[in-house]
């Protein structure tokens, strides 16, 4: 693996100084410098989408910069990953990308772009063999629309039928000001998870799962989820920890696209693990809160619940006609300072 940094700006002296930035221990970095005569912003362009001339000039220059960078990178590897300089990545992002690419290649279906972030031109992966085509495409249509719109058109032209977007996202935008006139930019990827490690646990439910959308998928990291048929009052999804766990925060997301939300339920923590013929649970539970609009979230709960728990339970409090999707269950924990168990 090697990194390629595009250095292109109107202040060429600063760009040359930026070439000295590398850090020891990191993968090799190549610098792709634009010729000083090409660093200015183009003018006299078409004003599509009623954008201001300054905005059209800015996004057009971006497309030209990307075109040069992509063409430069075409013969340097098997795949090309486009990211920005103001993002941070999830841990083990490279191994995750390698696994996803291998899975996609095994399907033997046509693809032109894999997406590891929902934001703009961040986390987009291409086959290097197609980079010359992408570079020409951006160069030909540089003034027509922003780069993230053009990449969608390129994907369609390369006969990739649907977007291939993996979740959770592997890259998060961290900048607060745009390169365009220093405007404030609070863009964040809601599906980004920097480092997610729920403690080891078993997950049980008495709700009927749809196909292979089993309850454990909501607990594990990844894009899969639990999908159950219409829940009845008294149904539950119970997480049994492998050891007593001091829980400091809980977040549960349900639904997809505003549908299959959990309408009425409460979240409970439990203690004293018991085993039955069908599953495992806890003997005693206490309620820590209820769902609102399909979402439950609580932080700093260890200030009130100071001892370790052995279970986490989502208890349905009213029947609903819609099916139920639990997209993720995430908890935060900390080491216990005493041997008491809640």
From TrEMBL:
Keywords: Glycosyltransferase, Transferase. GO terms for biological process: protein N-linked glycosylation. GO terms for molecular function: acetylglucosaminyltransferase activity. The keyword Lyase does not apply. It comes from the Eukaryota. Residues 201-327 form the MGAT4 A/B/C C-terminal domain. PANTHER family: ALPHA-1,3-MANNOSYL-GLYCOPROTEIN 4-BETA-N-ACETYLGLUCOSAMINYLTRANSFERASE-LIKE PROTEIN MGAT4E, N-ACETYLGLUCOSAMINYLTRANSFERASE VI. This is Alpha-1,3-mannosyl-glycoprotein 4-beta-N-acetylglucosaminyltransferase C-like. It comes from Notothenia coriiceps. The lineage of its organism: Eukaryota, Metazoa, Chordata, Craniata, Vertebrata. The gene is LOC104948068.
